[in-house]
Structures are given as C-alpha cells and as structure tokens.
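Notes from hallway chat w/ T.B., transcribed later so I don't forget. T.B. wanted the structure written out for a chain they're using in a teaching module, and asked if we could keep both sequence and structure tokens in one place. Agreed to drop them here.
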Amino acid sequence: MTKAKKLIAAIKKQWLAERTRCQSCGMPLIYDKNYRPGSIYCSYCHDGESFAQDMSLADMRVRVDSLLQTRHASSLARVYMRMRLATLKRWRRGAVGKKAG
C-alpha cells in the first residue's frame, strides 16, 4: 500500500470515528465492543432503554477527563473532549437524559 493510500485510509477511519461518537460520552462507537447497531450511545452509557448513570454534564466531563488521563492522552485531547461533550445530543439544552441542576 502506498503512503497516499495509507493516509487516505487513516483519514477515513478518523472521519468515521468523529462522525459516529457516543452522544453521551464522546467515545467513537467503532471502539465499543458491545455496540448495538443503530444506537447513538455506547454500551457503557446506555443499555438500550435508559442511561447507565444519572449524571450532569460536569460529572461526565470529570469522568471522561479521568479516563483520558489514565490512557495518557495529551492535554490538548482532554481539553478538546471537555469542550466537545456539550455539543453531544445528551447534553444539549432540553435533551432527554439530562440531569437537572
């Protein structure tokens, strides 16, 4: 495989990961081993009927940041995800599953 083809394949994989993120925690759904086809949430956040944990956006930011620290993610990646969480469906104003407060 040429360098150009490898680069294109890597870009496609990243594009797919960005396009199909869990709408609660932001994890790319392609990495969820228990993913349910058609779901917009990963199996860690949603069991198919309800959210696994009742939490606020602030709680989720702490949880995701902690997981990224454990995985030695860069500080830039951690900041990006803290900001990106607010754009996900679960956390948008008036979204179902959002904890009041």
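Follow-up for T.B.: The first helix runs from residue 3 to 19. Might be a good example for the class.
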